[in-house]
Amino acid sequence: MATLDPQTSRPAVSVVVPFRGDWAGADRLVAALRCLDIRDGDGLIVADNTGGGNAGLIAGHGIRVVRAARERSAYHARNEGARVAGGEWLLFLDADCRPVTGILAAYFAAPIAEDCGVLAGQILGEPEQRSFAARYARSRNLFDHAQGLIRASGGGAAAGNLLVRRSAFEQIGGFTEGIRSGGDLDL
Questions:
Q1: H-helix or E-strand containing 89?
Q2: What is the dihedral of CA 47, 155, 123, 173, to 10 degrees?
Q3: Range in 10-24, 54-68, 106-120 the model is least confident about
Q4: pLDDT tens, 60-87?
């Protein structure tokens, strides 16, 4: 496999974000996605899983918004976003996650083996998130891929920061729909 210099060249990546928030959440999402180093061939896709099309307001800011309202599920929304994506790689992020600057270059900093279909990035809890669920997840390191509930060593990864080779995603048929949780592990 040819080595890519992440500073000058990398494969096209489509960033897919399922969204089920309000208008303020849509604004926060736009701000979070601004740190991404989007290049020609890349894409930003927000799959709007709200009943009212709340993410529609952010279309046109370099973000393509697709409706994903047939089923209230982040997995359904991710699949709908992936259907319109054009990149060789799909980076799945969650709407309440803020990617770090340089995340795309970091994923491609080292050569990726041709037979590798998925790479998982770390997810750190935000101290500002004060809901019970957020506090519980932080206290138990639920999304820590080294020590948490979903461990990379066991073949699992959370879909909130997950890079998937498009061909592998299509080969397995994407995320299982009709479920509300566990779809990341199923993938």
A1: strand 89-93
A2: 0
A3: 54-68
A4: 878 999 999 899 999 999 999 999 999 9
